[in-house]
Amino acid sequence: MTDLLLKFTVVILLCISSFSEADVQWHTLDNHTVLVQQAEKLKYYDSNQVIITGTQCLAIFDASGDFSQVENMAKKIKQHFKQPVCYLIASHHHDDHLLGMAVLQKLFPSAKLITHQALYASFTVYQQAFEKQLATYQQSITLNEQRLSTLELEPEQQHEWTEKLLQAKRRLKRWQTLSLNLPDIAVDTDTELDLGNLRIQIMPRSSHTLGDLMVYLPHSQTLLASDIGDPLPYLGDANIQQTILTLNTLLDLEIKTLIPGHGRQVTKEQLKITQSFILAIDNHASVAVKNNLDEQTMLESFKFSPLKELVRTPLDEKAYKIFVAAGLKQAYSQHKNQEMQKLNDSSIP
């Protein structure tokens, strides 16, 4: 019965807050910047958010994939800040950065959503992803109602899980009134925003995905790099070679504080190790293509020497295996396409 309860708990917590609000840490970086950092145990599952405050209004960078958490963050913002929220900035299309924007659009209706132009161009795909997420929550509730009816629980446990289901239903009903609305502003060149005595710079790139946004805060030389700045990056949707070039530009930028999309603040030295990791993946995949190696051989033969700099915990180890495989496959595909393009070009008279 313990195993059944564990499975029941895992699924139902999709619709109610998975961890207590205390697991999310709020760090005041300076008078204008607040980092909302995920618990260490969730750093590969959900994203950081940043609140940027000017004298006239606020900007929110990214939104958690946990809608309950987004609601809690919005509640705190309304309690602690007098300025209105004028901008919602989505760093890229991944669920744990974008889908929660639907909650913020509802709670801050005058705020303008900003995305990369490439994300805007295919936004219907992500609106469908939002609807699919709601459908998944509904399926989870239905499944757990069925499971609850088959479990032999003490009356107290029965009451506890019944209440959790009711809470999940109430939240889902609220979320089903939401929609992920089209961005108000789409950018593909460096753009400056004025929040009131505070100017911030939006930096669009095509690196981690086709449409990434970073934000640079000149007043404190802080870079909100999102997943481009992750020490152990997921490269499954990345333009690998462009990511390496982007990291070159970041290393040349005057940065005192660098906020990644996941986990704690990172230093330029850590960013250099990340860049060497991505270079190693790209080089290994390039050699595999040139030597006509199959994917499995390529995966099994990859080694990265400064591994201890990236893998410090069992959670890091699990992520490393998944991310290396995703990165190598992506790099392999891109090098394969480049080789095909060369062959096609050489065949043209």
Automatic annotation (TrEMBL):
- Range of residues in the leader sequence: 1-22
Q: Which UniProt keywords apply?
A: Signal
Which domain of life, per UniProt? Bacteria
Gene3D superfamilies per the UniProt record, alphabetical: Ribonuclease Z/Hydroxyacylglutathione hydrolase-like
Domain named Metallo-beta-lactamase: residues: 46-262
Please verify whether the record's keywords include Nucleus.
no
Query: Tell me, what is an example of a GO biological process annotation in this record?
Result: antibiotic catabolic process
Q: Which Pfam families match?
A: Lactamase_B
InterPro entries attached to this UniProt entry: Metallo-B-lactamas, NDM-1-like, RibonucZ/Hydroxyglut_hydro
Respond yes or no to whether keyword Signal is given for this record. Answer: yes
What the record says about family reads:
Belongs to the metallo-beta-lactamase superfamily. Class-B beta-lactamase family.
The molecule here is called Metallo-beta-lactamase domain-containing protein
